[in-house]
Amino acid sequence: MSELTPVQQYYKGKTVFITGASGFMGKVLLEKLLYSCYELKEIIMICRSKRGKSPESRLEDMWKLPIFQRIKDERPHVLKKVTMFAGDITNEMLGLSEENLKYVAENTNIVFHMAATLKLEGNLTDAVNMNLAGTRRAMDVARKMKNLEAFVHLSTAFCNCDQEIMYEKVYEFPHKPEDLMRMAEWMDVQTLDAVTPKLLSPHPNTYTYTKRLAEIYVRDQYNTMPVIIARPSIVSPAAYEPLPGWVDNLNGPTGLMIGCGKGVIRSVLVDKKNKSEVIPVDYAINGLIVIPYEFNKGKKPAEIPVYNITNADHRKMPIGTIIEMSKRVNEAYPLNIGLWYPDPCLTTNKMYQKFNEILFHWLPAYFIDFLLMIFGQKRFMIRVQQKIATGLEVLQFFTLSPWCFKSANYASLYNSLTRDDKAIFNMNMDPVHTEEEYMISCAKGARLFILKEKPEHQARARMHLKIMYFVDRICKIVIIYYFLKYLMRWTGISELIF
């Protein structure tokens, strides 16, 4: 395909401004734009200093990631099209210097606002500052852009969790975004924490709550700005691009996969009948890239466009089916040196879950840390279990609730593309690869990109898994034996038998 496709032609000569480009989705967006929309003029991204590293050094570290290898091999010149400015969405005008702000305002055509805090357990002050006020600050900068064609706000499909069916529209809420931002400014953290439970209802956490109000704020600017809302569901590892199985964090299904695969998570509160709501990151990013093109094709819609970037209904599988599939995959591609045999208990009973957590999470954690203390080693298991307990608690709302998203707008993005654009910006919900093949790709990606486990260690991991299987079964037999023995003695049955 020597000629540019319609989507590529749209991006030709354009300047794209990205917040959150250093995040999981941000990296994939940056790579895809550079690789597939290589005729664009420039990508401007903001980045703050973090852990003693300057924005420039963080960008250099980013280029070393394997997802940018195909660009280095095939189109290394496009890396020069990236401009890094020091910035932070928690600062007014995103912390841009006067000179940089002027440059952004004069050159930007398309904005992807992706920066946010994803901490479900985070306090409301931080969530408002990042997710709501951060969006307002990004839009303040966008208002200065002289040639703005599209402002794509990245939200979440779960922000309207009080709705049985979530359509592609902005839902009203009693609270006003401006009121909450003012409240977070003058109220101290402790006081705001005290009233947070009343404010959140019916939302389970500060993330979905602030994301919902951010949508309302964005919607209210539609009359004067070209704003669009994109709502991905749970974003999972890449299906195809930039690398199959690519992932760089433990959020969502990847964290559960690794935790269960290592035998650290032994029990999960989940309804196996519910359908999974995940979307591969490359499918989500391809949708994001097509949105500005689609928005500028014709007449401006009467209402703000909203896209639920979710899997097609016929591709959604029951969580129980996925768990069984993941067990088969884990047996074929086990993780190195797990704590216990990976066979987690799935339950909807909260009391039973608490019992399992005490027996299989906390007691082993205290025992391991006790041994580490005796041998003079650094203790870590209790700290790990505290993080796991927090993570499992905030996930309960999502794993126990059925979800229903309508994604006609997202589906239409792919259906309206030319054949060449469909090949480049793939969102095909009927791929030749099966779900199990994708699961294998995710397992390999978690091993390689997160745990840094080498493929040549796979045979050793399988041997370790077999050993842990027999240890697990022997321990269960011993426990059952002594439990029955005690029960028979306590009830007097043993005297009748013997």
TrEMBL record:
**Which Gene Ontology molecular function entries are recorded, alphabetically?**
alcohol-forming long-chain fatty acyl-CoA reductase activity; alcohol-forming very long-chain fatty acyl-CoA reductase activity
Q: Which Gene3D superfamilies match?
A: NAD(P)-binding Rossmann-like Domain
Q: Does the keyword Membrane apply?
A: yes
Stretches assigned to the Fatty acyl-CoA reductase C-terminal domain: 360-453
Q: Spell out the family assignment given in the record's similarity comment.
A: Belongs to the fatty acyl-CoA reductase family.
Record's function text: Catalyzes the reduction of fatty acyl-CoA to fatty alcohols.
Q: What is the name of the protein in this document?
A: Fatty acyl-CoA reductase
